[in-house]
Amino acid sequence: MLEFSNLTCGYDSGFFLKDISFNVKDKDFVGIIGANGSGKTTLLKSVTKLVKIRKGTIFFENKNIQELDFKQISRKIAVVSQRPEVSFKIRVEEFVLLGRIPYIEKWQFIETNQDREIVYRAMEETDTLDLRNRLVDSLSGGERQLVVLARALAQQPRLLLLDEPTNHLDIGHQIKMLDLIKKINRENGLTVIIILHDLNLASEYCDKLILLDKGLMYKTGTPNEVLTYENIEAVYKTPVLVEKNPISSKPYVLLVSKEEIDKRNG
Predict the structure, then answer these.
(1) Up-side HSE of residue 119: CA atoms within 13 Å toward CB?
(2) For 75-112, where are the alpha helices, taking DSSP H only?
């Protein structure tokens, strides 16, 4: 579905991702991890042409992303950003309907019945249909993130990009959000690329991980291959223990405070 080939991209300020090469297969659930400033968000933005490609190529469904216009991209790729721009004085149903904008034809001024059906289905999938008449600014943080996800699903994408969608949520809402995304990935065949700061969530939900370090790819592979204490300590510059989750057998990262390390070292 998606192929990065020797990609170098970045900003005029001087930060660049360099020589990024990897493939994302149809229906994959891929996590992007790395320390702050490693280039995670920049990598997602390159897919939607929001950062300038200096070298290399990105192919989406065998087409060079540079040759696709924004309407073509938005019909295939949906984004849930870390801080979504939300018009707070708008009803939830109207907000989710914004996901149908890529499908508006010339001289079309109102949504079709089909648009409404797609929007209702997206709200049903995200358990937000009962919120449809609420104002977005009256929602809790967890409800708002689900509504933003519903808008993305209303685009009927083939690829879903998520930039830390659980960042400001409590653990209950984090699990609810990721369980839902995983379910849509499995049942609807939606390909997912997600940025996660929490390494244990990334381990639990992602099939494949991409570990970035200072604009470079440090390691890619399964959670077992990537989340070793050697890799984590090298990139995050902090000591950790890596055990197995007793339920899922996925890697589980344990943090160790400096105080405890000093105690053990005498």
Answers:
(1) 23
(2) 92-97
